[in-house]
Design goal:
Number of domains: 1
Keywords: Chaperone, Membrane, Transmembrane, Transmembrane helix
Helix content: 55-70%
Strand content: under 5%
InterPro entries: DNAJC25-like
Distance between the termini: 61 Å
Subcellular location: Membrane
Oligomer: single chain
Number of helices: 3
Number of strands: 0
Length: 76
């Protein structure tokens, strides 16, 4: 006797409503994080006139060259 077994599991593709809900919940955190980083950058490097750290110089270089962090690791 042959039985049909469903091995699909309980996973289903998310709907646009699920994704939209997640994005709306995450939006305040994303915005506040970006504002904090931007404000910190302005304070440290424009107001206090500190020298760039090596990590921050790398971020500026990656941004100017449009290189992803994974690709940047190849150069280091």
């Amino acid at each position: 006797m042959i039985q049909e077994i469903s091995i699909e599991g309980g996973y289903s593709m998310p709907t646009y409503k699920d994704i939209l809900l997640y994005k709306l919940v995450a939006l305040p955190l994303t915005i506040s994080s970006a504002l904090y980083r931007w404000g910190r950058w302005i304070y440290k490097y424009r107001i206090k006139k500190e020298d760039y750290t090596e990590e921050d110089a790398n971020v500026l270089t990656m941004s100017a060259l449009s290189i992803s962090p994974k690709r940047w690791e190849v150069f280091l």
